[in-house]
Amino acid sequence: MIFGRSERGKPPVEPVTLKILVAGGFGVGKTTLVGAVSEIKPLRTEEVLTEAGRPIDDTSGVEGKHTTTVAMDFGRITLREDLVLYLFGTPGQDRFWFLWDELATGSLGAVVLADTRRLEDCFAAVDYFERRSIPFVVGVNCFEGAARYPADDVRQALDIDPAVPVVICDARDRESVKEVLIGVVQHAMAHAADRRQTVTT
């Protein structure tokens, strides 16, 4: 089925749409992740890094990066005919953090992308979602030449709750990203069920 059309004899299915944030540090692969999985041409708000921004933007570890997201990335993926995810990639630099609250409104959950070479860059995103009780999954983006660590080691380094999934992924690979997004949906549903149970007991 493609939005509004269905197979002959079957009633049209109205898909459930869910909003997922993709967050993390500067240059961690958020724009790449959204682009790898989106079934539409992603909306990107990238600008070229300039000399004027050099004192503000920390490019250590990502010296080859020449552009930055200044508002958001946007993409869409249909997981099933009745389930569509809208992806919003957040800007990674501190000076654009005022946009986060707006982007987070109405979100089901989030992916926090992490780079093991600069793990501290995702601390702020982890803290943001923890403080707002927004369920999230940590996706460890595997960069070429970076050391590989077991998920449990990353969890310990980030000091996150044992219930938060940590998955190894490749932000360039559609199937890998799809698995991360399915993990977000499953984790968010489990999180919602736990909260409902807490309220009723």
Automatic annotation (TrEMBL):
> What species is given as this protein's source?
Streptomyces lutosisoli
In its keyword annotation, does this UniProt entry include Metal-binding?
no
Give the similarity note: Belongs to the GPN-loop GTPase family.
InterPro entries, from UniProt?
Gliding_Motility_GTPase (IPR052705), Gpn (IPR004130), P-loop_NTPase (IPR027417)
The lineage's top-level taxon is Bacteria
Coiled-coil ranges (or none): none
What UniProt keywords apply to this chain's record, in alphabetical order? GTP-binding, Hydrolase, Nucleotide-binding
Spell out the protein name for this chain: ATP/GTP-binding protein
